[in-house]
Amino acid sequence: METTTGDVAKACVIGWPIEHSRSPLIHGHWLKHYGIDGSYEKRAVEPDQLETFLKTLGAQGFRGCNVTVPHKEGAFALADIKHESAKAIGAANTLWVEDGQLHAASTDGEGFMMHLGESAPAWQGTAAPVAVLGAGGAARAIVYALLQNGVSEIRIFNRTFARADEVARHFGGSVRALPWDEREPQSRDCTLLVNTTSLGMTGAPPLALDLAGMRPDAVVADIVYAPLETNLLRDARGRGLQAVDGLGMLLHQAVPGFEKWFGVRPAVTEDLRSLVLADMKKA
Ligand code: ATR
Question: Per-residue pLDDT tens for 124-144?
């Protein structure tokens, strides 16, 4: 860790635009809760300023930063040390400066697994297949994390089959691409089904998926968090399946960055969830 402007630990989130980011709310809550003399700021960084900003991150006094749209790929490309979690996606959401070098990681997958572990501790899925809907960055992050956690078979269903196929080829072996239309019959024997598409989000079309016939011990997770209770999660609960919401992933993905920059591994609590939910209601 290094700062060049005094002892106050500083981090930030960068994006263009950046106003919508809830990261300052999350990290600000933890800084206060743990009584840390630090700050977490929003920085609007224009795309053509990204390189300069990141090359001088440490010199500006920052221990690191979160990265949001549209800089996730650019930050990954510019980092000196690219961690496996980021390589799996080709993008990074968490950066830190260590021994003068810029490190890049993606914490979405870890955030997903931490939330899954807390919300559905009975999930025993590693020996049975897992179904992933979608083939974007979030899907890649989750597939990477599932494999890291020993899942033996992953089936990817995506509207555009070629993208699912690309993800399957990237990870190889036990990751298979399947046609979107087969998502119902081919996920019935899965212990976990994860929606990583934008379907079901406020303003997006609904996700058409009949959960009839799924294993009674299956867990259904959605990364969509607005609304918090998606139709998918409501259907899952209605059928007695365990439902895991998308807000937990959003909160848990912030944990590794905070720990790197401020030296404390923070807890995702009900207080934090309520704070972020209240902010979402305001928006
Ligand atoms: P992210 O990087 O956040 O995961 P993304 O790359 O835009 O976002 O991926 C969005 C996912 O939602 C994709 O899997 C997309 O499917 P395509 O690859 O076919 O575009 C999926 N998606 C979005 N709208 C959809 C729709 N109407 N029907 C089915 N899938 C949809």
Answer: 777 889 999 999 999 999 999
